[in-house]
Design brief:
337 residues, globular, alpha/beta, 2 domains, two-stranded antiparallel ribbon, 11 helices
């Protein structure tokens, strides 16, 4: 009777963990332990809860190992760019997952109408086999953030970044003059500046996230009074973007998916972007139907500038040197003819 009671308790506990993981795939083992303890009155070991979570994730999203076998088939079904896994090591008959790059045709088309700027970043995967998710993020004229390319690699190495950046340039961002913003990760810099790279002038331009520059500065000097926010002449390539914040936003959006088997991760990017394009497409269509010629963000900027332009006089202007002098006048009441 005691054994049957314990067996029943195990099933009930497993179901409790199942419901918690299903509600939040990124839930930590510690939180799961706490949930079990609060609900059943005792604390299960970390290992038991970890194993239970892995079984639950596999039950909901598919087996971890089988997910790698399913990935090429799923990518082929989606008719993705470069849906391949590369065998390693080549001297054996066993094919092992190495890395994969993917994008979506609507993303490629959308980037043609976005700012000529991308933010790139890498973020850890927290599943059974780890790895790193690399992403390139763009932004349109209405300040909408758009992921345009993804890759899963072993880690942030020069080889991995070169793989990602070369296919990104070839298939998604072939336009000249694109600015890429990144943190100061050494592997990223080496890949961007490698011999033959198309991410150097005059083909493309590079900029660093100033937040990372400040953080690195503090690491070396540890003096908050010396920490400065700096901008420099970028010839307009930054479009006002001083950080990789748009990448950080997508990292947060993808946080739950980073704990899933690889095919479930790719599926997540597909369905999330499908929902995004459907929603933003409807919003854009509604704006066109009411006769809007410019994006809402641009219209707000025009209205703001128009409000204050009458209080300013431009005395000097040198178009070639981009130098001008502006005097702001005191507000004048009354109307003008």
């Amino acid at each position: 009777m005691g054994q049957d009671h314990r067996r029943l308790d195990s099933k009930v506990i497993a179901q409790h963990i199942f419901m918690m993981v299903k509600a939040d795939p990124i839930i930590s083992i510690r939180v799961l332990q706490g949930g079990v303890e609060n609900h059943f009155g005792y604390k299960a070991s970390y290992r038991k809860v970890w194993l239970a979570k892995q079984r639950v994730v596999a039950r909901i999203y598919g087996d971890w190992e089988e997910s790698y076998n399913e990935l090429p088939r799923w990518l082929f079904t989606m008719q993705m760019y470069l849906p391949v896994t590369q065998p390693w090591p080549a001297s054996t008959d066993t094919v092992m997952f190495h890395r994969v790059f993917w994008t979506f045709p609507p993303c490629v088309e959308a980037f043609k109408h976005c700012k000529s700027l991308i933010s790139i970043d890498g973020t850890h995967l927290y599943g059974k086999y780890g790895g790193t998710l690399l992403m390139a993020i763009a932004q349109d004229g209405n300040a909408n953030i758009l992921p345009i390319a993804f890759a899963v690699v072993k880690g942030e190495t020069k080889e991995a970044w070169s793989f990602f950046l070369s296919y990104l340039r070839e298939h998604v961002t072939p336009q000249p003059g694109v600015l890429v913003i990144s943190d100061r990760h050494k592997s990223t810099g080496r890949a961007l500046n490698a011999e033959g790279s198309l991410w150097k002038p005059p083909h493309a331009f590079q900029a660093f996230c100033t937040r990372h520059i400040a953080a690195n500065f503090m690491t070396h000097f540890r003096n908050k009074d010396l920490k400065k926010w700096s901008q420099y002449a970028d010839e307009g390539h930054r479009f006002g973007h001083m950080t990789t914040n748009i990448s950080e936003c997508i990292n947060a959006v993808m946080k739950g998916s980073r704990n899933l088997p690889i095919t479930a991760l790719v599926n997540s990017s597909y369905f999330r972007l499908g929902e995004l394009f459907a929603r933003k497409g409807s919003e854009a269509l509604a704006q066109l139907q009411v006769g809007a010629k410019f994006s809402q963000t641009l219209m707000k900027a025009i209205e703001f500038n128009s409000k204050y332009v009458n209080t300013m006089n431009v005395y000097q202007f040198d178009r070639s040197r981009r130098n001008f002098t502006v005097e702001e006048l005191a507000a004048v009441s009354g109307s003008r003819q």
